[in-house]
Write a structure and sequence with these properties.
about 270 residues; alpha+beta; Arc Repressor Mutant, subunit A; Beta-Lactamase; 9 helices; 9 strands
C-alpha cells in the first residue's frame, strides 16, 4: 500500500524534499493503490491507506473520476481504477520493442513445450507480466498480462534477481519475505543461497512457491546488465516428468539465445 513518506515503488514524495510536485506524486500513488487492490474502496479505506487529508483526497478523487482514471459505484461513495488506466497499460505493451521482438520466439517456445509461456519484467521487488502464451493442455495455469507478483516467489523473478549481486539483493529485499504458499522462500539469505545455484545452472525454478500444484522454470534474457526481462514455462506438477522437465529447460535455453540476438539490436 502507499503511504505518505513513500510511494509504492519506494520513491520519496514531494513532502520529503526534491523537485517532485506533491499533487502529481499523490495522483500516481492513488492510481498505484487502486491498481494493487482491485475492486471498489470507500473514501475512508483509501484515506487510511494513503494518509492524505480527507478533503484534499476527495477533491483529487473527484478530479480523477471526471477524467476517467478512477470510477465510482452507483452510490458515488466507492472508488476503483478507471478505464483510462487500461488504455495507458495497453499502449505500454503495444509500444515495447522487447515485447514485439519476443513474439516469434514465444510462439515457438509455446509450440516446443506445449506449456504456458511468460515474458516478464523486473519492477522493484516484483515482476510484471508483459506477454503470455497459454498451454495447449486442458489442465493449465492462467496469468493475465499486467499481473504483478513478488520476484522472490517466481522463477522469472529469481532468474532476474540472480543477475544482481548479493549486496544488491540485500538492499532490494527485506530480511523476511512474504509467503504466497507454504513452499515460498521467506528468508532472504536462503533465497540468496538459491540465487547462487541459479547463476551456475542458468535458470531458476519455482517449486510451488507462487501457486500450489504448479512448477515454473525461468531464465533471464541477458541483453542488458543487470537483466531486466525473463521468460518462463509453467507446468502443473501432475504432468511434469524428469524427461519433460529437461526438454523444457533445453527449450528455454534455445529461446533465451534467440531472444538475446533479437534484442541486442534494440
Amino acid at each position: 500500500m502507499c503511504g505518505r513518506s513513500k510511494g509504492s515503488r519506494g520513491m520519496p514524495t514531494a513532502e520529503t524534499g526534491g523537485a517532485q510536485v506533491k499533487s502529481a506524486v499523490r495522483t500516481v500513488e492513488l492510481l498505484e493503490y487502486f491498481a494493487g487492490l482491485p475492486g471498489m474502496h470507500s473514501l475512508a479505506a483509501v484515506q487510511e491507506a494513503v494518509g492524505y487529508p480527507k478533503s484534499s483526497l476527495y477533491m483529487l478523487l473527484r478530479t480523477l473520476v471526471e477524467l476517467g482514471w478512477v470510477e465510482t459505484d452507483a452510490t458515488g461513495t466507492r472508488y476503483g481504477i478507471g478505464v483510462r488506466a487500461l488504455l495507458v497499460g495497453t499502449s505500454y505493451i503495444d509500444g515495447d520493442e522487447v515485447v514485439a521482438a519476443a513474439r516469434p520466439t514465444l510462439d515457438r517456445l509455446s509450440d516446443d513445450t506445449t506449456e504456458t509461456i511468460h515474458l516478464a519484467r523486473l519492477d522493484g521487488t516484483n515482476v510484471v507480466y508483459l506477454a503470455t502464451r497459454q498451454s495447449q493442455h486442458y489442465l493449465r495455469p492462467f496469468t493475465r498480462i499486467g499481473r504483478r507478483l513478488p520476484a522472490h516467489a517466481t522463477s522469472l523473478g529469481k532468474a532476474l534477481l540472480a543477475s544482481l549481486t548479493d549486496d544488491q539483493v540485500r538492499s532490494l529485499l527485506p530480511e523476511t519475505l512474504p509467503a504466497l504458499t507454504e513452499h515460498t522462500i521467506t528468508d532472504r539469505e536462503r533465497l540468496i543461497e538459491e540465487l547462487h545455484q541459479v547463476r551456475e545452472q542458468g535458470y531458476a525454478v519455482d517449486r510451488e512457491e507462487n501457486t500450489l500444484g504448479l512448477r515454473c522454470f525461468g531464465t533471464a534474457i541477458p541483453y542488458r546488465t543487470p537483466a531486466r526481462d525473463a521468460i518462463s514455462c509453467s507446468v502443473p506438477v501432475a504432468r511434469l516428468t524428469p524427461a519433460h522437465e529437461q526438454s523444457i529447460v533445453d527449450a528455454l535455453f534455445d529461446a533465451r539465445d534467440r531472444l538475446t540476438l533479437a534484442t541486442r539490436r534494440l
